Amino acid sequence: MSYKTILTEVDGKVATITLNRPEVLNALNDQLMDELGAALLGFDADDNIGCIILTGSEKAFAAGADIASMAKYGLKDVYRDDFITRNWEEIRKVRKPVIAAVSGYALGGGCELAMMCDTIMAADSAKFAQPEVKLGIIPGAGGTQRLPRAVSKAKAMDLALTGRMMDAAEAERSGLVSRVFPKADLLKEVKTIAKEIADMPLLTAMMVKEAVNAAYETTLSEGIHFERRLFHTCFGTNDQKEGMAAFMEKRPAKFTNS
Ligand code: CO8
């Protein structure tokens, strides 16, 4: 499939999707979000893919929703047509691991998009912000909900009320970002990690993702119960037999994703 606002690349079991509207620092418009959703779901359905990377340019992961498109909207346009949720929900349907590799700006919807991924790895040049307040709006794609869960209420309030930028070091300290790399190495390093994840037994990796995500949607006791049932389910897979046999026989495991 050919896209206009994103680039896609497959290297072994790792798919990389690059946001590609450089003239507007990857501002997110409907076309981009439609194409991104289609690409993500396509890779999710592809048995040969085990991990997906979402990235942007060196200067910008994404500088937010496209302000030029939004500026003309009124209440009817956004409420009646349910602006945002239509094509942002696709990302949540992806069941394979998705890593955001963030270099440069991840602002507003760009920061929210990164937070919708399963983990964020950043270049030392990365800058995160929820600057919507300066435009007379609040974050609208999960920023007020995911940011406090990632970095604490105090930090989320600070960021969303001032709109200030948080650099990569602060983002890592705060827990928003799992690892930081020098800008020039980001993609190489993230690809190595993505390959490591893609080489894990796929069903198990999907269950890890499902269980960790459940921690954000449920009570502790319900989450523990859900985890235990998925843990039990692992014992019905061939890869559990292979993984444990390989350990006992002191040899590398040969997983079959079954
Ligand atoms: N939307 C549209 N165009 C943009 C955006 C944007 N978010 N960000 C940058 N651009 C454009 C600029 O207008 C400029 O275009 P032109 O060359 O035609 O003037 C080009 O990109 C380059 O930008 P700058 O010249 O401004 O580059 P600088 O290096 O000087 O500054 C900044 C970079 C600091 C990133 C600056 O561009 C900036 O502040 N951008 C806006 C950041 C922002 O406010 N983002 C939040 C947007 S609101 C939002 O995301 C709400 C999310 C709601 C949910 C998601 C729904 C889809």
Automatic annotation (TrEMBL):
<comment type="function">
    <text>Could possibly oxidize fatty acids using specific components.</text>
</comment>
<dbReference type="GO" id="GO:0006635">
    <property type="term" value="P:fatty acid beta-oxidation"/>
</dbReference>
<keyword id="KW-0276">Fatty acid metabolism</keyword>
<dbReference type="InterPro" id="IPR029045">
    <property type="entry name" value="ClpP/crotonase-like_dom_sf"/>
</dbReference>
<comment type="similarity">
    <text>Belongs to the enoyl-CoA hydratase/isomerase family.</text>
</comment>
<keyword id="KW-0443">Lipid metabolism</keyword>
<dbReference type="InterPro" id="IPR014748">
    <property type="entry name" value="Enoyl-CoA_hydra_C"/>
</dbReference>
<dbReference type="Pfam" id="PF00378">
    <property type="entry name" value="ECH_1"/>
</dbReference>
<protein>
    <recommendedName>
        <fullName>enoyl-CoA hydratase</fullName>
        <ecNumber>4.2.1.17</ecNumber>
    </recommendedName>
</protein>
<dbReference type="InterPro" id="IPR001753">
    <property type="entry name" value="Enoyl-CoA_hydra/iso"/>
</dbReference>
<keyword id="KW-0456">Lyase</keyword>
<dbReference type="GO" id="GO:0004300">
    <property type="term" value="F:enoyl-CoA hydratase activity"/>
</dbReference>
